[in-house]
Amino acid sequence: MNDPSPTRAAPVLYGRRHESEKLDRLLEHARGGRGGAVLLYGPAGVGKSALLGHLRTRAVGFRVLQAAGAESESRLRFAAVHQLFAPLLSDLGRMPPYLRATVEAAFAAGDGEGEPAWFTMGLALRALAQQSTAGRPLLCLVDDAHWLDRPSAQALDLMARGLSSAGVAVTLALREPADRPEIEELPRLRLGPLTESTAGALFDAHTLVPVDRRVRRRILAEARGIPRALLQAPSPAVTAGGFMPVAHPAVGNDRDLPAAVTALSAAGRMLLLVAAADPTGDRALLWRAAGELGLDVADGQEVQDTGLLELSNPVRFADPALRAAVYRGADAPARRRAHHALAEATGSRADADRRAWHRALGALGPDEQVATELQARAGQAGCNGGAAAAAAFLELSASLTADPRRRAGRALAAAEAKREIGADDEALALASLLDAGPAERIRATTVRARIRYAADRGEATLDTLLGAVAADLPQARACLLEALAVTIMIGRDASVRQRRAVAEAVAVLPAPPQPIDEFLAAIAALLVAGSDQAMPLLRHALEAGPAVRGPLPAIATVEVWDFPRWQQIAEARVRAATSSGALAELRSALDDLAVARLYTGDLAVADRYVRDGQAIAAAIGAVSITPGALLCAAWRGDESALTRLRRRISAEDVPAKDGRRGAFAELAHAVLLNGQCHYDMACQALTAAIEQTEPGLWPLAAMEFVEATARGGRPDLAAPAASRVREHAAAAGTGWAVGLTSWCQALLSDGSAAEPSYRDAVRALSSDGPHPSAFLARAHLSYGEWLRRQGRRTDAGEQLRTAHALFTSMGAEAFAGRAERELAAGSAPPPGHGLVLLTPQEESIARLAAAGTTSKEIGRRLFLSPRTVDAHLRSVFTKLDITSRRQLRETAFGAGHPPQQ
Questions:
Q1: Same-domain status, 217 and 331
Q2: Residue 198: left (phi > 0), alpha (psi -120 to 50), or beta?
Q3: Among 570, 644, 680, 763, which residue's CB has the most CB atoms within a 10 Å radius?
Q4: 873 lies in some domain
Q5: Is residue 741 within 8 Å of residue 731, measured between CB atoms?
Q6: Is residue 277 one of the residues assigned to a domain?
Q7: CA neighbor of 570 nearest in space, from 583, 557, 584
Q8: What would you measure as the largest C-alpha separation in the chain, in angstroms?
C-alpha cells in the first residue's frame, strides 16, 4: 500500500481536467513547503478512487502513504490512522515525549499507557508528518473516508488543518451522501457525473469490440455519467450487440426483484418486461409493442411513478442491473409474449435482424422459417455485434431447427463462431451432435479436435487432429495453421515426434496448391529444422504477404529480425480482431502488439494493451499471464510484480504445457537482472531459452544473453552467442539485425576497437521508421559505460544522459537507475559560478531547435533518430530549467548558460 516511489504512467482521466489541475496545484504547493488538504466527494462510482490513483502517479519525488476506510473497521479506534502512518513509526524517536507516547499507545509500539484522545493524536500526526518531509514532500491519500472510524477522522482533520508551513499534501475521498462532520469542513472538491460526450469517450475507450449504436446509447443513458456504471456495463461478449443469450430459465424467479416491481399490476409488470427485453431503449418501439399487448399510457404512468423506469428516449431503468433482474424474474410464457410483441412492432426492413431475433425468442417450438431467417441474418448481426452476435444467431437458429442435418450444420457454424469469442466449452457442446450425416460428423470431429488440441496439447489429441485433417480436406490448411501455432506455444515441452508429425502433415497438403502453403512450409521448417534453415523460406513467405490470422506471422517477422513489419502485422491483427469481435484472437493480438510497442519504447501504451488483454482473458476464461505482462513488469523494473507472475506460471504451466510462456518468463527475468547489474544471474536465467531457441524469441533474448555473459566475465558463452547473432543478422540484413551485431561486437572488443562498433550500433538502431528504441537506449547505455571506463567523462556523460532520458521517458526504471548510477560514478564536470553546462551535442541540437528546426530535420543533419534528438532536448530543458522550444530562443548559448529564472 505504501510505495515511496511511484513510477507508472498516469492513467487517462476523462472529463476531470479541472479537478486534476486543482490537485496538481496541491502537489506544487507541497513541493514548495506549503502543505494543504482537499476533500474529494461525490456519488459512488463517480471516479474518486481513479482520481486518487492519478494524483499518486503525479506525485513524482513524494513519499506516498495510502489508506482506505473499511466498514468492518469503522468501530476500531484509530484503525485508519494506523494503516496510514505505520510506515513512519521509525521516526517516533525524534518526536516530543508526550506526542510519542500518544502514538505508541495507539499503535501499541512502545511503553505508552492509556488510550490517546483524538486531539492529541492529531497533533502527534501533524508532527510526525512534518518531520518526515526533511528529505522530500509527503502525500497522504485516504480512500473511502466515509468508513473512517470517528477518532481517525477527527485526528486526520486536525492534522490536515495545520499543514500550511509543511511539505505535506493530504487528500481524502468521501462518498456522498455521508454524514461525516469531522472532516467535511476541509477544502472541498466535488466530482459530478461526466457529460454525455465524455461518458461516450470513456465507454468507447474501454470497449474493445463492436457495440450496436442503439445499445450504446441506452447503456450511456442508464449509466447517467457515472464511470463505474459505464465500465461495468455488460461486456459485448455477453450482450452480443444487444442480443440476449439463448439460455434463460424456463420458470421465472422473482425472489431477487425489488418490492416495487412485485407490487405492480400485471399490466405494469408486462410493460416493464417489454422494456427489459428490448436492448435498444427505443421509446417508440416500446409503445408500439405495448399496443400489441393491449397496454396503455396508464400502465406506463404506473411504472414510471415507481421510479423503476424512465420513459424517456432512450427508455432507461433506474439501475442497469434491474433490467436483467426483471427479465430473469419473468416466466417463459411472459417472455415469449414480450418478444412476440416486439417482433410485431419492429420494422422488417429497417431492423430485420432484431425482428428475426424477437420472433425466435417468441417462438413456442421448432420453426424452420424463423430458423432460416436467423441463419440468413447472422452475418449482418455480426456486423453490428461482432462474432458474439453471429454465434448467438446461429445457436438460436440450430435450437429452432427440426431437421437433423440442417440442425447439425447450423450448430457446427455456431460452434465455430463460439470458438472465435473464446467460448470453447460451448463450442464443444454444439459440436457433439447426434443424428448427423457423414459430412457433418467429419466436420464435428475436426472442430472438437482443434479445440481439444489447443486445450490439452498432448500427442494423442494431435493424432486425432491430424486424422481429422486427412478426412476433412476443406479444413486441412486452417487446422494445420492452428496445429503449428499450438505446437510452437508448447515450445520446449513439445516432443520431437509432435513437431515432426505436424511438419509431415504440412508436407502432404492436398492439391491444388494454395497461397498459404508456402507460409505453412516455412513455419514447419522453423519448427523442425530451426531458424538457420527456415530464414530464407520465412523471408520469401512474408514478402508474399499471406492472409494468415493468429500469432504465426508476427513470430515469423521476429525470427527474420524485421522490426517494422512486426509492428505493422501486430497492428493489423488487432484491427482485424477488433472489427470482427473475435475475442480469443483479440486477446492474443493485443499481447503481441504490447510486446512490439514495448520495444519501440512505448511502455505505457504496452501496459494498456496488456490490461485490455487481461480484461478479455477474464471474460472468456483464458490464460491472463502473457509474454507482454511479463516483459512490461521486467522493463518497468517491478521485481515484486514479475516474481508474482512467474510463480503463477510455475503453477499454471504444469497442466497447460506452455513452454514458450516459460521461455518468455526467463527472458523477462533476465531483462530485470541486467537492469539491476546482476549479470551472472541473468546468464543463468537465459541459458535454457538460448539453448532451446524458441521461435520468435531468439532476437529478443540474444542481446540479453550476450550482455549478461560479456559483462559477467563469461566470454566462453558470449562469443558463441554473438557468432550466432552475426550469422542470423547476415541472413536477415535488417537495421535491427545490423545494430545488434555491432553491439555484440562492441561488448566483446578490447580497448579502442570497441568504439566503432558502438557507434555503428547506435547508428543502425536509430534508422528511420519504427525501430526497437528500447535496444537503442541499451546501446547508448553500454557505450556510455564503456566510455566512462576509458576515462572519457564528458563523452560518457553525453551517452549516459541520452540513455537515461530514453529510459525515463519509457518508464524503464531499472535501466534508468543503472544509467543514473553510471552518471554519478562518472561525476560530471562541476558547474562554475551557477552556469549550466551543455555538451557539444546538446548545444548543437539546442541551437537548431531554437532556430525552429524540427526534430526530424535535426536528426537528418546530425545523423540521429528523432527520438534521440527529443531525448537530448529533454536533457537540455532540464538543465536550463525551461519547458518549451520557444524559451530556447531567449537563451544565449555559450560554454555555460545561467538557468532561466
A1: yes
A2: alpha
A3: 570
A4: yes
A5: no
A6: yes
A7: 557
A8: 93
Grid cell for residue 35: 502543505
Non-local (6+) Cβ contacts of 570 within 8 A are 554, 589, 592, 593, 595, 596
Q: Is 667 within 8 Å of 631 (Cβ atoms)?
A: yes
Q: What pLDDT score was predicted for residue 336? A: 92
Domain residue limits at 811: 733-826
* 554 and 512 part of one domain: no
- Return the sign of the alpha-carbon dihedral for residues 392, 457, 573, 553: negative
Long-range CB contacts for residues 255-258, cutoff 8 Å, separation at least 24:
255/329, 256/325, 256/328, 256/329, 257/325, 257/326, 257/329, 258/308, 258/322
Q: In what order do the strands lie in the sheet with 168-175?
A: 63-68, 138-143, 168-175, 36-42, 188-190
Average pLDDT over residues 552-567: 90
Lowest mean pLDDT among 209-218, 473-482, 605-614, 756-765: 209-218
What is the rounded distance in angstroms from the CA atom of residue 241 to the CA atom of residue 253? Answer: 26
- pLDDT computed for residue 380 by the predictor: 76
CA distance between the termini of the chain: 38
CB–CB of 26/160 below 8 Å?
no
Asked if residue 813 has pLDDT above 90, the reply is no
pTM > 0.90: yes or no: no
Continuous H helices in 362-495: 368-399, 404-420, 424-431, 438-456, 459-471, 476-490
Of 126-135, 167-176, 714-723, minimum mean pLDDT range: 126-135
Q: Which of the listed ranges 81-85, 636-640, 877-881 does the model predict with the highest average pLDDT?
A: 636-640
Domain count, the chain: 7
- The per-residue pLDDT for range 477-490, each reduced to its tens digit, is 888 988 998 898 88
Same domain assignment for residues 321 and 206: yes
